[in-house]
Amino acid sequence: xxxxxxxxxxxxxxxxxxxxxxxxxxxxxxxxxxxxxxxxxxxxxxxxxxxxxxxxxxxxxxxxxxxxxxxxxxxxxxxxxxxxxxxxxxxxxxxxxxxxxxxxxxxxxxxxxxxxxxxxxxxxxxxxxxxxx
Length: 133
Hints:
mainly alpha; Four Helix Bundle (Hemerythrin (Met), subunit A); elongated
């Protein structure tokens, strides 16, 4: 798959994640603000991927990984949520590593993986919250 197609596909995934964030934003402002911060870093990663600014990718993917360790990140206390968080962190760390190694193809694949981890986790959280109602 050529690079332009990969970037286009990733942009579509980011839009889906953004829509999912808006859909699942809880009423607590601190969590909403936290998720917005996560979204900003995700957008910066996409910008870095599309402009081939791998330093930007490394910086913001590392920030995403660090955010995933914050207490505010822990919106659920379930083993499944912990697994989703761990998988996200590993994917973000892989993205950071690929960017630092200047591996553009590895960055593209890792970005897709990070995005899929976001989508999967948000789907899980929505499902748990819907079941709890």
